[in-house]
Amino acid sequence: MNEAVEHSRGARSAHLIVEFGDFEYPYSRPARRQVQQLEDQLDGEARFDCRYFPLTDRHPVTEEAA
Question: pTM score, two decimals?
Fold first, then answer.
């Protein structure tokens, strides 16, 4: 497996929200909506980090997508 690709946005001093996602996992999209609500509630005081966590044993093409 390749080294994880990470993406983040927001100030480093802000509250940290980390999401581990898999492009084929059905709950990743609803979880992202909840993270967006948290970001909105924290009104610029949040830093969001997204880390890809492909479940390759269940989703064979997710690593390619990540």
Answer: 0.60
Classify the phi-psi angles of 33: left when phi > 0, otherwise alpha if psi is within -120 to 50, otherwise beta.
alpha
What's the total number of domains in the chain? 1
Is residue 27 domain-resident?
Answer: yes
User: Can you give the residue range of the structural domain that contains 48?
Assistant: 6-65
| Residue 1, in any domain of the structure | no
Could you report the per-residue pLDDT of 11-62, keeping only the tens digit for each? 888 988 888 877 777 777 788 788 888 888 988 898 888 888 778 888 878 7
Instruction: Judge contact between 62 and 22, C-beta under 8 A.
Output: yes
Distance between first and last Cα of the chain: 11
